[in-house]
Amino acid sequence: MSHVKLIAVLGSVLLLAGCGAGNKSAAKTPSSQQEPASSRSSQSSSAQSSHAKSSASASSSTASVAKTATFSNQTFTIKNVAFKLTGSKITASATANRNLFVIYYTVTNHQNTSIIPSDLWQAAVSATQNGHKLGTGNLAFTTSQTSDNNKLNRTVMPVKAGQSVSGLAMFEPKGSQTITVTFADTHGQTVHTSTYPVN
Fold this sequence. Notes:
Blueprint: H1 2-28, H2 37-62, E1 69-72, E2 75-78, E3 81-92, E4 99-109, H3 117-124, E5 125-129, E6 132-133, H4 146-154, E7 164-171, E8 179-184, E9 190-196
Antiparallel strand pairs: 1-2, 2-3, 3-4, 4-7, 5-6, 5-8, 8-9
């Protein structure tokens, strides 16, 4: 009887030892905690792909965009509206002891809808003198400038599709240095520059 009990006890010990050994081997290789090699490589390749995409987008953003305006034969064209430059002059300003630089143009609307010429012009054309940006200034209210005031008024009125009107733009010089007029497209890229003497 005691031998039978002893064998039963030994059998239980062996059975428990076998279970413990199985748990130890499982603990040595926790497959649930280790990341499969295929998963690691896919994450690495997706990180590389993401880096390549961000590099490509960075390089494309630094590249210049196609210009959306042109300047040819003294005609600046932007958004299907053509400003044909017809002349320039220095004239008296409404401000005492100041002059204005005036550029004359004929604007033709090739769009399908009405446009305000001065809105397009002011967004795209600027002038500098000795590196300083010039303001627009004001025409004097004199009989000699009635024609110029009428042209200026036309630039702030709607011009219908297919219509042309004569207008002008002004800049107020700050000295006697040459004026540089810059024509830019809708992205702010320079399309053309012209220089004009003040005297």
